[in-house]
Amino acid sequence: MVTAKAYLALMGVRRKIEPNTKLIAEWPLSPTATLGSSVRARGIFLEMRARLPAASRKLLHIESRVLTLRLPEGSGADVEAAAAIVSNATRDIEELPVIPREVEDILTISSGERHRWLKDGRLQSAGTRTVKLRGRTRKITFHVFDPRHIEDVLDRDLVTVWRQEDAAAAAENRRRAAAKAALKRAQKRGRAGSTDSSEDEDPASKLRGWEDFAGEGLLR
Hints:
There is one protein chain. By secondary structure, the protein is an alpha+beta fold. The protein folds into two domains: 1-96; 104-192, no CATH class. It has nine helices and five strands. The strands form two sheets. Strands 1-3-2 form a three-stranded antiparallel β-sheet. A two-stranded antiparallel ribbon has the order 4-5. It is elongated and about 95 Å long. Residues 177-220 are annotated as: Disordered.
C-alpha cells in the first residue's frame, strides 16, 4: 500500500510550510547554480537536505529557488549546526554535478536524445554515481555531468545543431536503405528474366551438331 507521504513524493507535490515557524536563515540559489531549471533547484535542495542530520532535515525548505531554514515553535533542534552545514555546502553549490533528469530539463531534451548523445560523446560524462533507492535493495548507477559543460551546451544552442545533424544522418540512412532495396529488387528481376529467356529458347538449338544433322536431309 502506498502511504500518503510516498504518494505526494511520487506526484511531485511539496508539503506546505507550517505557518508557526521562525525563519532562521536563507540561501538564494543563483542562476549559475540552477541553470534556469526548477528541477535542478529541487535537486540542489535534496542534496543539501541529505547532508543534514536526520533530525534537522525537515527544517530545510525551498521557496521560489531560495533555501530556507525554519524552526517550528517549541522545537529544540540545533539550528545553528544545521545552518553551518548548509552554509558550508552552498560554497560549492554551483559545481554540483548535474544528474540525468536535470540535464533533460535544462536542455529540454528527451531521455532518448540524452542516451544517444552520451553514447556518441557529444554529451560528456563527468563520471557515474551509484545510489540506493529508499526501501529497495537494488542500487542504480547513472552518469552525471559537469555543470559548466551543460551550461556551454545551453549557451551555444548545441541541442539545435545536434538535432539537425541527427536529422541529416537519418535522411542519409533512409536514402541508403532505399538504394539498397532498389538494387536488390533489380537483381531479383534480372535473375527472373534470365530464367524465363532460357525456358523460351528453342530446345533444338541446345543440341550439338543440329545444323549438320539438318543439312544431311535426315529430317526430310
